[in-house]
Amino acid sequence: MRLPLGLTDEALAAAMTEQDPESLAAASRMRARYGSDLAAAALTQAALRRQAKTKFGDVALEMFFTRAGLEQASRPEVADYHARRFLRAGVRRVIDFGCGIGSDSLAFVRAGLEVTAVDVDPATAAVAQANLASRAEVICADALEVAEQLITPVVGVFCDPSRRNDHGRVWRIEDFTPPWSFVTHLLDGRQTAGVKLGPALPHSLIQETVEAEWITHRGETVEVALWAGPGASPTQRFALVMPNARLAASTAPPLLVRDLGHYLYEPAGAVIRAGAIAELGLQLGAGLLQTHVAYLTSDQLRKTPFATAFEVCEQRPFHLKVLRTWVREAQIGVLEIKKRGVNIDPADLRRRLRLAGPNRATLVISPTPSGVIAAIVERV
Asked: What's the half-sphere exposure (Cβ side, CA atoms, 13 Å) at 11?
């Protein structure tokens, strides 16, 4: 296989033996053997592979990455979910625009789909080609220039527009690549189409005619996927807590605000982003601690995949002196601080509380109609 980014097998193997590929010592050794450019490319790849193990597992040690591509790449389990959606819609061939390093394309291949992967950046396309080998066609081209010849009514279309440039992450939709106008065109309903975007995408930018699905994976909310065409549920908004817990946002009545009960629930990010707090509260028989603050509370414990449950041990007013006394008497040396709706820096608060001792605790800080409270809780 031809290696991308000007790498050689020998230089990459040498870089992978370095304990710290980003150290000056490693750079000096590699430059002496392979020259500056090849040494830098090999060491960068070795460092990225080690970082990628968190997302990809041991298979990362056989893959190739760009820094931006690794940051934006779908986690394998999430990419597999994308592939299953295409299969359920009856799709057998997918065009992957903005394929990046090929994470989603690899999942499509694993699912038995025929894949054409497209990326405008030559280095990124070369990395995708190396990762996909001969299992998929990779095209280095502007999506706008090749879309017309690639898209037909019988193919599925996936797009993960680049949200990074040479200066880092971009936030304006006008700066996406492919552009936002291309994204909205893909979602016109003529074919099964999925678009992966950051989970903070404002609801106002989501077309009413598409399905939106926010995904939480291993406690982290990683994306919102917009779906259109066969297999999609137009106008619907969902929260998916992987692997398979799905909650629909509907027109449930607003929840009542109530006093802190015996149990407190911290909803998953996907539930919050999807606007499904009221639906979850109804399932749990819970109310809100404060309007527009995403903490739920009740006096009965109900199991749910959509929230982390805590048992409330104590409730105290949020005063530094009161909490400092509690920390000292309880000998708290490690304190997890959770907060919503209050302008507090947890790191600064820990410092001011003067933690010391062998015990651990979790503190939840939230506004209520009667003032800010600090709840000492334990995970159920």
From this structure: 23
